Amino acid sequence: MATDFLPINGTDHIEFYVGNAKQSALFYHYAFGFEMVAYAGPETGVRDRASYVLRQNKITLVLTTSLHPDSEISEHVKKHGDGVKVLALWVDDATKSFQETVVRGAEPAFEPKVLKDEFGEVVVSAIKTYGETIHTFVERSRYKGPFLPGYKARSSGVKAEPIGLKYVDHCVGNVELGKMNHWVDFYEKVMGFSLLVTFDDKDISTEYSALMSKVVSNGNGYIKFPINEPASGKKKSQIEEYLDFYKSAGVQHIAIATDDIIHTVGELRRRGVEFLYVPETYYEDVLDRVGTINENLEELKKLNILIDRDEEGYLLQIFTKPIQDRPTVFFEIIERNGAKSFGKGNFKALFESIEREQELRGNL
User: Fold this and answer.
1) What predicted TM-score, i.e. pTM, was given to this entire model?
2) Which residues of the chain are under the pLDDT cut of 50?
3) Structural domains of the chain, with CATH
């Protein structure tokens, strides 16, 4: 068996470039239960930006805003709205990760560099991927600080109430028509990922629109990246709508795992997070399709949580509405009870739900 030239320990962090990081941090704190753990900005010697680091279990989000109108961050927000800039991967050797991927064709975003402070040192490097998204390799075995050198420990002063979010299950990218296979090849050749599953327009379509999707995964399965592209349909697909408003390829949604989706979604709804709506008729025959589940169907129906099954078990999932005014990035909450798949049985119901929202926006 070939050795994994790019061993990855998991997702290190996800960094959003946003218009107002202070207010965004409050949203994730109160609505999603993330605890603020670190900060970088003028008070810590960083002159051009402010970054807030939030954490819940194994999930670390970084919210960064520019302090100047003509910076790369400001340009990113102007073009894309709030969006994901960095999908950072936790590795044992950031220099080797950079070299191995660049020699296989990756375009460098920045070369390996050592960051140091009183808590030790971190090595970081980065390569470019679809749109303006980058993968940063983070090597932190010699570091004991709250996040990265340059950041200072900081709490919000009000204790967060976590809602059971555990780790990043997968991150989905939307790419332009005809580019899906290009980026699947990139992950296979440049990063040593393998193709996990393919969905075509027969799997993911409604009367009006369709998309194609392929899922790539790294060697140990900790990192899974579905890549979507539009497919032809009578009307505009959700992928086309995303590309129209994001203005390039980019991260469409982040799926976060929980062990108790009923508690997690109940709390999110109580705190004002909005979800896509699936009609009650979905639940009339869902158990005929998925069989026995441990949860009470009425509770799932009340919270509008979807159910699907594969050979290894079942899963429960739900999707938020976009978390900013542009119809771009959103979150998925997922609870896996053995299932390794992505909810293929729910695609049609989910798409019709998204189309209802597109129609309200006048974008179908």
Assistant:
1) 0.95
2) 1
3) 10-153 (3.10.180.10), 165-361 (3.10.180.10)
